[in-house]
Write a structure and sequence with these properties.
Length: 97
């Protein structure tokens, strides 16, 4: 299952921001499916600016077969996003890749 993590998660659990393609297990309900990191988001402060950013994992919603990702950048990221999507599909064994 693809996952996007924030920088705080990457630093805390992997010690680096270079985590694309890394895998981890995250308990959710009764299952423990492996997650593949397909992106790293900037930290967001939800509670208190002085407390620092909490590690966050963004997952596709349950019941769907994917998710929509909005990317804002001054660079043209279309080719890179398509490359990351193809690689994630290949690693996940998606027949539509």
């Amino acid at each position: 299952m693809p996952a996007i993590v924030n920088a705080a998660f990457a630093q805390r659990y992997f010690g680096s921001l270079d985590v694309l393609g890394r895998e981890f297990a995250h308990s959710f309900g009764n299952s423990l499916p492996r997650k593949i990191i397909v992106g790293v988001a900037s930290d967001a402060y939800y509670y208190d600016l002085r407390r620092g950013a909490e590690p966050i994992v963004y997952l596709p919603s349950q019941g769907g077969n994917g998710f929509t990702l909005y990317v804002r950048s001054p660079l043209s990221l279309g080719p890179l996003v398509r490359l990351v999507e193809r690689e994630a599909r290949r690693r996940l064994g998606d027949a539509d890749s």
